[in-house]
Design a protein that fits this description.
By secondary structure, the chain is α+β, with helices and mostly antiparallel strands. It folds into two domains: about 230 residues, 3-Layer(aba) Sandwich (ECO RV Endonuclease, Chain A); about 240 residues, DNA mismatch repair MutH/Restriction endonuclease, type II (ECO RV Endonuclease, Chain A), CATH 3.40.600.10. It is built from 18 helices and 19 strands. The strands form seven sheets. Strands 2-1-4-5 form a four-stranded mixed sheet, sandwiched between helices. Helix 2 runs parallel beside helix 5 and helix 15 runs antiparallel to helix 16. It is globular.
Length: about 500
């Protein structure tokens, strides 16, 4: 029994933790410093301790501070839950407010525990696994991340015990089994966070060159950790911690053994039907821009354009249109690049790389017949293979990053008035490239401070501001996407 809470009672731990709501981490440290019952007074009273936890790069700093200063136990990396007598795991995690509407989103995935490849293959089941032991009862402490503030001045807003509900646990079990199967097949080096839905195998190393031994293969694999995906954490925040927010429609009512197989079967029931037929079946009279994905949701029994399981898993629906020739006309675009942000990123923790690492796509494929009519051809789940991500995509990102960061972006206008640059081109890369994604030439973003466009005198006459450039984005090549489509869906 602690002077503050009963370590063997989850409810007692939760009640004590709720007293942190409204406080900053600095206040928690200050209250601990003056506490006569402080078990760690000598350590926390020194200035170095506070300064080290204020560093932005110290990702575990806030959790470490809460453990030592508030709950009065020494931070450690034990395999047991943080409160072993009650089975409660403590996790301190950030969220952000996005846009004018201040939508709440988890800032990052939640790391549960490191994956030991050798121990993993000997576990008998998900229910008996190390990760479930750590994840089945979590005390979640949410704080608001604000970029301009010191870590110590972030304030804690939500605290509650969380247990994944049964329907989520079933999907996590399937995720766990996928990861275990790959490791048992000697393919731990091919693991990707995009392989699974809620429970991911996240890379966990400050240096991307680090590797670990794995059973059943001589190829070393990246260090990875079980994690709740960013999208799942966002769902948890808005569903269980923030009262009164709307929920999304579920695809599954009840339980299914294989969620992805269930989804594919539902869509495949309409295979061969034309887009016009599908519009008639589901009462869609207009021709919205997102018609292909809208029809997919209707086929899945979802009235809106957001499905609960897809939101939790961060699944992105992409409608693919195959021409009569068997080719795809359009490459796949991604959000516009923030040049200033890009310049400060590294490949191991960059916006585009993380998006592809974490995202599982759901392709709904339509193909034109001889008369040019689109018909549903099939559907499939897909995530980018690790070798493609770490190969061509990484090369394109690095080239783009270096050009922008070093101020080497060159532009020139040809005799016809067309604008050209020295960014990575589709003709030079098999998987991805960079090209414009703005409304027009006037739709621009600022370059990193201190850098300028490189251009000749003729170009300067039609481009007066050398500190801004047309919005660009990363694309996956249409020739690459068609190769990812299964033969039976073409």
């Amino acid at each position: 029994m602690s002077d503050f809470y009963n370590k063997a009672d989850p409810t007692s731990i939760e009640r004590y933790a709720e007293k942190m709501v409204g406080k900053t981490f600095r206040e928690i440290w200050e209250e601990n410093e003056i506490s006569s019952s402080d078990l760690l007074k000598e350590k926390t009273a020194n200035k170095e301790y506070l300064e080290s936890h204020a560093k932005k790069k110290y990702k575990g700093g806030m959790g470490n501070l809460v453990e030592e200063c508030y709950f009065k136990y020494k931070s450690n990396s034990d395999s047991e839950p943080d409160f072993p007598d009650s089975g409660v795991e403590l996790k301190v995690t950030p969220y952000k407010e996005i846009g004018r509407k201040k939508e709440l989103r988890a800032k990052e995935r939640l790391i549960i525990t490191m994956i030991d490849y050798f121990n993993l293959v000997n576990e008998s089941s998900f229910q008996q696994s190390h990760v479930w032991k750590k994840a089945q009862l979590i005390l979640l402490v949410w704080y608001l991340y604000e970029q301009e503030k010191s870590n110590l001045d972030f304030h804690i807003d939500f605290v509650k015990l969380f247990t994944p509900p049964e329907e989520d646990r079933k999907i996590m079990e399937a995720d766990y089994n996928k990861i275990v199967a790959k490791v048992r097949a000697g393919k731990a080096h091919e693991l990707s966070e995009g392989d699974t839905l809620y429970l991911g195998a996240a890379t966990k190393s400050s240096d991307s060159s680090k590797r670990r031994r794995q059973p059943y293969s001589d190829i070393e694999a990246k260090p990875r950790a079980f994690s709740f995906k960013n999208s799942y954490m966002t769902y948890i925040l808005n569903k269980y911690f923030v009262p009164g927010l709307a929920t999304y429609e579920p695809i599954v009512h009840g339980e299914v053994d294989d969620f992805e197989a269930y989804v594919v079967k539902k869509i495949s029931a309409y295979r061969g039907k034309s887009v016009d037929e599908l519009c008639w079946i589901f009462g869609i009279s207009k021709n919205p821009k997102n018609l292909g994905s809208m029809l997919a949701f209707r086929m899945l029994g979802v009235k809106g354009n957001q499905a609960e399981e897809f939101e939790k898993a961060g699944i992105v629906v992409k409608a693919i249109r195959i021409e009569k020739t068997g080719s795809i006309q359009q490459s796949m675009s991604f959000p516009a690049i923030d040049y200033q942000q890009l310049a400060h990123e590294t490949w191991d923790d960059c916006t585009f790389g993380n998006y592809l690492r974490e995202t599982r796509f759901f392709f709904v494929i339509y193909k034109k017949d001889a008369e040019g009519q689109l018909h549903l051809s099939g559907c499939q789940f897909w995530n980018i293979p690790e070798e493609d991500l770490e190969g061509d995509v990484r090369a394109v990102w690095q080239e783009m990053h270096d050009i922008i960061k070093d101020g080497r972006l060159e532009i020139h206008v040809d005799a016809k008035g067309n604008l050209h640059n020295n960014l990575p081109k589709k003709k030079d890369h098999t998987v991805s490239h960079v090209r414009p994604h703005g409304q027009d030439r006037n739709d621009t973003k600022p370059l990193p401070v201190g850098t300028h466009l490189l251009m000749d005198e003729k170009t300067k006459e039609c481009w007066p501001d050398d500190t801004r450039y047309v919005k660009q984005c990363f694309w996956l090549n249409n020739t690459y996407i068609i190769r990812q489509i299964k033969e039976e869906n073409r």
